[in-house]
Amino acid sequence: MSASSAVRVRFAPSPTGYWHPGNARTALFTWLFARHTGGTFVLRIEDTDRARNTPEATENLLDSMRWLGMDWDEGPVVGGEYGPYLQSERLPIYREATERLLEEGKAYYCFATPEEVEAMREEQRARGVAAPKYDGRYRDYPVAEARRRVEAGERHVVRFRTEPGQDLIVHDIVRGDVAFRSDDLDDFVIVKGDGFPVYNWACVVDDTAMRISHVIRAEEHLSNTPRQILLYQAMGYDLPRFCHVPVVLNTQRKKLSKRDPGVRSILSYRDDGILPSAVMNYLALLGWSSGTEREFFTRDDLVEAFTLERVSPSPSVFDVRKLESVGAEHLRVAATDELLEMSIPFFAALGLCADPPTSDQRTAMWSAVDLLKTRAWNLQNLAESSVYLLRDDFPLDPQGVSKRLLKHEETPTALEAVATALEATTEWNLEAIEEAFRTATEGGGFHTGNAIHAARMAVTGSQKGPGLFECLYTVGRERVVERLRRTAQRIRAGELTGE
Ligand code: GLU
Questions:
Q1: 0.70 exceeded by pTM
Q2: Domains of the chain by range and CATH?
Q3: Can you tell me which atom of ligand 1 is nearest the CA of 207?
Q4: What is the separation, in whole angstroms, between the first and last Cα of the chain?
């Protein structure tokens, strides 16, 4: 690939608040496109809104991207040839570009106060103008006089001189050609009263300076693109390719908001122990599909399969239940050894092991993870459901006590018969366990189904979980036998209370 056709893309977040799935999805498409094409992924922090941007938000973003495995080739921390990558450190670059537009008469100083501008809009609204505009009152203000006022320190903004009568067509990779008219735009501000460039202006200067080939961003910016095209043209810059990716909606089909159920910061999913590969997989499905029914993708699969052409122009819907099911899929296929390392903090936080764990605890946790990884969607709920595997004092579900342990008179005797049979097995494997169990219940004239439910309650404390024989196998013979007998005794002694 020649230097001029090399793919260089950027993700350009404004660091306000925490990073949620909508932003992360846009970053992911950009990153996948870079990795798929062997291009360069640039991270640029658009921190020119001094009232809203915080260093914590930048840290949250960098940590989220690292956790998801979206590495950047140029940007904060790693640096690069076209830095600095924080817009707040690039002010001289914008100043120089602004100076050029001013000198060429393509931009001008405006001294209208915010109150004046508001009054102008109010007056237009009163006349029934739906989209009020700046009225151009400083358009033809004498240049020398304007310079003098600026040099004297008077507060001002810089406006772009929008010439009417132009068709502005955005050739968009996802949306096709979208036409705008310059008549609908006014002389918009490019440098604010505090001397900082507005988003549209800094973005054009930086995308050009950083040699960005494809501008991939959220659809909400499509309406900014005609203004940016005017700025590219005024500066004589080549246009990049544009690609506006569809909005992410909530399950009520409204724009995704931080208040929606299940919508949390990316780092809070990490804190719950959902695997990063699962979050990446789910985010990729928000607006992209491989063109087949397939929905399970590893990070490498996505890099291989992703193309912008398969990004849909229609909105996608964030559904936390779907995220959970993708989370479960990724846990199910993950290697137990790998999961064990990641699970330790979750077990330790619940007091189920020391940190670092003893070697016996490691062995027990390995078995717990291996058994439960097929039934959890994150490591938090995996650890929570493992208490009976790691400790003998686990809680009993009161509903299960009533329904499974106290309902039938034969239950304690059946549990004891099963205990005796399991104690006598010569081998401890699924087949031997099942056979001993069934022989004890059928041979003793007990109801096998009821005995299975009762044994599950006695050994795990819960009515749900993996197959009973797998549970018994993992808990281990000695503890199973002890739990079955203890439960039988407690039923007889009237020590168990249900709901
Ligand atoms: N800072 C803008 C945002 O976070 C970037 C838009 C763009 O990618 O051009 O929405």
A1: yes
A2: 3-87+248-317 (3.40.50.620), 90-245 (3.40.50.620), 334-390 (1.10.8.70), 398-492 (1.10.10.350)
A3: 9
A4: 70
